[in-house]
Amino acid sequence: MRIMALITSGAMALTSASYANGFEDRFDTLNPQNWAVANYTFGHPYFDTDWSAKQLNAGTGLTLKLSPQKGRENAYIGASLRRHKPTGFGRYEVTLQAARGAGVITGFFTYTGPYYGTRHDEIDIEFLGKNTRQIHLATFVDGKMWHKFIDLGFDAADKPHSYAFEWGQNSVRWYVGDKMIYQRQAKDGAIPSVPSMLFANIWAADPSIKAWSGATAKGTNATAKILHMGFKPQSVEVGS
Fold first, then answer.
1. Residue 21: what pLDDT?
2. For 17-29, what is each residue's pLDDT tens digit?
3. Which residues pair with 150 in a beta bridge?
4. Topology (CATH) of 27-233
5. pLDDT of 151 over the 50 cut
6. Taken in order 8, 13, 18, 19, is the CA torsion positive or negative?
7. What is the DSSP string of 25-58?
8. Spatial CA neighbour of 28 closest among 65, 57, 66, 64
9. What is the pTM of this model?
10. N or C: lower Cβ tally within 10 Å for the chain?
11. Which residues make Cβ contacts (< 8 Å) with residue 5, sequence separation at least 6?
């Protein structure tokens, strides 16, 4: 999350024509026809992180690494993976083991924004390494954020667990395993409606947001593991 919330016109609301085919990937290899791996210097003010393809490895799942770096404006180098094709309403699933460490964020989320010619819409599952016994849920609609922390009852950094969110026309529902842990409905606030790219990443937060993320200790190394990601398209009625 935390991509610049610059707003542009022309955002497309979801229609049945927007639904992409579903997929499931266990990452024995990384198919470049389906996935893009970030490999560039990143200038966002909330990130103390650049991206390198060398920080992500496939084979019986994905390993995403965060490492310190020298001689750059950002003190860390992390990993970010993006699905090429935008997707819309449906169920998004991941099996992951979150990274531990203050200031370290593990993310699984949908995002679209100005780079893709749309407004900023987003749905997030995040784990803050300062307290991996909580999950952070968030949405952005036209750049406006809603978010919530929920206690898990276990440590997400100890071993992989399954997480999901169901994105419907009138609600977003988040799950841990088979249990729904929270539902945000249209009556509570706007629901994202723009087809979006699916991402997973690991990154170190800039000190400017340490009240939220915790302060990243100098020289921090961290690793997150993703065993599975998937998407099942559903009709607009799902989540209503």
1. 82
2. 344 589 999 999 9
3. 135
4. Jelly Rolls (2.60.120)
5. yes
6. positive
7. E--SS--TTTEEE--B----TTB-EEE-GGGEEE
8. 57
9. 0.90
10. C
11. 113, 120, 140, 143, 145
